[in-house]
């Protein structure tokens, strides 16, 4: 996340526009839309106007071409207001990144301008009913039939699947391949015959954004839908995209952790007990100090990961560290904020209970925190061999 002195005038203008958008179009309606689990169509329409669906897509394809650092700053600011809004662009941009980094020239020319404009929005379909973290265990099949693939299988917990129009779907093109990842491919599937949204999932938090279960039944797509035109590269392609996704999750964690801190600082100066504001009690002061330290540490880790991504370096360890720490910071700060707010933190009249419900998702999405620890430790050994 570039500091103000490093940002270009265009980036400053974009961030200012995002701030105005959040205050005018999101904050006044976030609580009601979240409570009713209503898809925020008017907010999405405004995001299209702002160009956010093309945030990290190259300008040659109509995108804003923002760095991961600036994009992470946008996500952090969004999540201080309503985390669900960030998910509407995150999955979409992971899909776009896969096409931009690995797609054929024809795929880039065909899809990226429509992704950037928001005309065609979507996400990624990885998780299956019996497969989450272990992606090599997926069962969805894509079988060649002349110039087409015929796709059969099921996916679940897929964001942007009900309201979006296209998904990058991880499939098995060779289920007998050893190791399994050599038989996995990534295919773009637009909505059409054989592509069914079975049901929208009811969630504890992260409400408003559509998260659904899908079924592909003899879904026929052209061979040209295979990202990169070469089978067996799908797992590597999506893992590369998940580096950006994990930076997004880390930025979300920073945003929620900061929102919890900001609201707790304000409340602690207003709420009084034993004849003085509770911010003058040492127990509260200690919580606020820990909360602030978590925010700053999470922000610095996220900045480091984003800078590594922008430089083109391998950054799975940095992204994993940022995602791990920032998501845990969000969870811890939401708990401390609820304790500082007392009974009011448990009430739907305040935002704290929403942060408390939203934060745990960050420890699960884009690879569980247990997986992040494994990734980090493996990279530590790989980079420090004796």
What is the fold's blueprint, element by element?
Blueprint: H1 9-36, H2 41-50, H3 68-79, H4 83-102, H5 105-117, E1 122-125, E2 141-145, E3 148-159, E4 166-172, E5 184-190, E6 195-200, E7 211-222, H6 234-270, E8 272-273, E9 276-277, H7 282-310, H8 316-341, H9 352-358, H10 369-383
Parallel strand pairs: 1-4
Antiparallel strand pairs: 2-3, 3-7, 4-5, 6-7, 8-9
Please give a handful of descriptors for the protein shown.
386 residues, alpha+beta, Butyryl-Coa Dehydrogenase, subunit A, domain 1, Butyryl-CoA Dehydrogenase, subunit A, domain 3, 3 domains, 10 helices, 9 strands, globular, Acyl-CoA dehydrogenase, Acyl-CoA_Oxase/DH_mid-dom_sf, flavin adenine dinucleotide binding, AcylCoA_DH/ox_N
Structure description:
This protein is of the alpha+beta class. 51% of the residues lie in helices and 15% in strands. Strands 2-3-7-6 form a four-stranded antiparallel β-sheet, covered by helices on one side. Strands 1-4-5 form a three-stranded mixed β-sheet. β2 (141-145) and β3 form a beta hairpin. The longest helix is centred in the middle third of the chain and has 37 residues, at 234-270. The radius of gyration is 21 Å and the shape is globular. The two termini are 34 Å apart. The mean pLDDT is 95.
């Amino acid at each position: 996340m570039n500091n103000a002195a490093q940002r270009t005038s265009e980036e400053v203008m974009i961030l200012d526009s995002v701030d105005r958008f959040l205050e005018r179009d999101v904050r006044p309606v976030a609580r009601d839309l979240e409570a009713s689990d209503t898809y925020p169509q008017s907010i999405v329409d405004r995001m299209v106007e702002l160009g956010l669906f093309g945030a990290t897509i190259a300008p040659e394809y109509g995108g804003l071409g923002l760095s991961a650092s600036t994009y992470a700053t946008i996500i952090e600011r969004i999540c201080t207001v309503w985390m669900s809004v960030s998910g509407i662009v995150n999955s979409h941009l992971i899909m776009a990144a896969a096409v931009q980094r690995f797609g054929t020239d024809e795929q880039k020319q065909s899809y990226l301008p429509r992704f950037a404009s928001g005309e065609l929005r979507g996400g990624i379909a990885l998780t299956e009913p019996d497969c989450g973290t272990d992606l090599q265990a997926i069962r969805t099949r894509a079988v060649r039939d002349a110039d087409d693939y015929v796709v059969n299988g099921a996916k679940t917990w897929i964001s942007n699947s009900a309201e979006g129009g296209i998904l990058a779907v991880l499939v098995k093109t060779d289920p007998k391949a050893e190791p399994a990842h050599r038989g996995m491919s990534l295919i773009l599937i637009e909505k059409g015959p054989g592509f069914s949204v079975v049901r929208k999932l009811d969630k504890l938090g992260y409400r408003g954004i559509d998260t659904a279960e899908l079924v592909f039944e003899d879904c026929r797509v052209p061979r040209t839908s295979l990202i990169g035109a070469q089978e067996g590269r799908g797992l590597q392609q999506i893992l590369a995209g998940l580096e950006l996704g994990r930076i997004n999750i880390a930025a979300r964690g920073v945003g929620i952790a900061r929102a919890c801190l900001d609201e707790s600082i304000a409340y602690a100066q207003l709420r009084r007990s034993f004849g003085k504001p509770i911010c003058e009690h040492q127990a509260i002061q200690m919580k606020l100090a820990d909360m602030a330290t978590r925010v700053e540490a999470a922000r610095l880790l996220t900045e480091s990961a984003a800078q590594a991504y922008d430089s083109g370096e391998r950054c799975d360890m940095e992204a994993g560290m940022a995602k791990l720490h920032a998501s845990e910071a969000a969870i811890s700060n939401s708990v401390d904020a609820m304790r500082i707010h007392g009974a009011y933190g448990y009430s739907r009249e305040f935002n704290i209970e929403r942060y408390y419900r939203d934060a745990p998702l960050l420890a699960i999405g884009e690879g569980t925190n247990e997986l992040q620890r494994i990734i980090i430790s493996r990279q530590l050994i790989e980079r420090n061999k004796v």
